[in-house]
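Model: Ready when you are.
Researcher: Fold this.
Model:
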Amino acid sequence: MSNPAPAADGQPPAARPPRRRQARGERRTQQLLDAAAAVFARNGYAAASTNAIAREAGVSPGTLYQFFPNKEALAVELGRRYNHALQEANSEAFTPANATLPLDGMLDAALDPVIDFCDANPGFEVLLQSTDTPGLVAEEHEAVHTTIVAAVEGMLALRAPDLSRAEIARTTTMSFGIFKAGLQLFMAAGDADREAYRAEIKRALFGYLTPVVGTDAIPPPG
């Protein structure tokens, strides 16, 4: 009897996991990561345990260990997915096109995707703030942050071309400081007050940036 012909990927059929099993595994992985995010957000990273995460997911600890050997592995994978999603949000927010909008419109376009991301993923801030979080999470976030800083500096350079590089860097640093302080208040507020804090973040940045970049729309680059 002849051997089965290899598939297009060069592997015999028996060597490829069934797609249905792969899909179940992906759903289980996401279920466990969602549970970890909820436990981290509620209890903090240091106090979280794999048993608590398994309970949150509605599975046994043994099932969790089939996918993740420990809490650290969950945090690393969760952080990787958070950082990827944040990078995607930033790529839509901090763009040259948004820089040409009137200042209030620019702030809406740039800040809302980031605030919405943080609102939807409170576990991410917990991971970043915990001193026990695996260092890889912070390292990957630092790479994302560096990209964001460069994008914001590019927006400021378009709106205020007479600023020196040092002035742009300083304005960017101050803008991030204002935003982070406001975001902490936003995250700590109850649901009924969050939209008010969102508006306050924008008002603070509008007041800070107005004398630097003006309030009117600008011609598109090029």
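Researcher: Now this one.
Model:
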Amino acid sequence: MPASRPIWKGQLRLSLVSIAVELYTATKANAKPSFRQIHEPSGKPIHYEKVVDGIGPVDKDEIMKGFEYQKDDYVLLTDKEIDAVKLETRKTLELTQFVCSDEIDPLYFDKPYYLVPSDDLAEDAFIVIRDALRKSGKIGLGQLALRGKEYLVAVKPAGKGLLLETLHYEDELRKADPYFSDIPGKKADADLLEVATALIDKKTDKFDAKVFKDHYQAALRELIARKLKSKGRKITTQDEPREEKAGKSNVIDLMSALKTSLEGGKKPAKVKTTRKKAS
């Protein structure tokens, strides 16, 4: 079993079958450097006071949670009132519906978690559910109450285990129409489309996350290491070369750019286009 502690323990249920499972976060909390604001002369961290406009600092006991139902008007709620409507962490995650694996828009997916059997007794039933999902090409849907909130979740096979992903509810997502409405509805030029498709085919490969590195985070860690080595002294960093503003003289023809990319940077061959003769 992994060294980290499960964030949830309970039963994964399919109809009358219940399986003891544990849930683990699939992402690392400390994978990226985090910063605090520091008072430079003293080297001590900065803290913030709770203040009210026209009043100044206020006591912690005077603070309540407020929901802004209209501009500058709030309905106030006590912690006790909020706790009263929190959902108790249910010990059962029931798969109530199944959908095809490609039916859920990626826009809905939020955070990934690993779902594993709790003990040896649960393994056989767990494997049956996992392999049944894999064979059918389906994803199981259910709702999980966790830490006072209720999450819509999707469960699917992942290697020897199951991957549970929280999903956004419908009312949490913005509609795409306001953002896409100004994009012309015309089809791409056939010749350009052919070359672009060929370029995509050329660069198509199996997904391997190890190929992609977070260059910013790597550079940030290297900067921190250099700063530690220099004992806090100011160090210089190299600036990226500035790109010249594009003008009429250096506008690159789209077809030429696609052809050059397709041929691996070589000078593109002359583009031949055919047009229908006017009748």
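Researcher: Key takeaway?
Model: Residues 139 and 264 are 40 Å apart (CA to CA).
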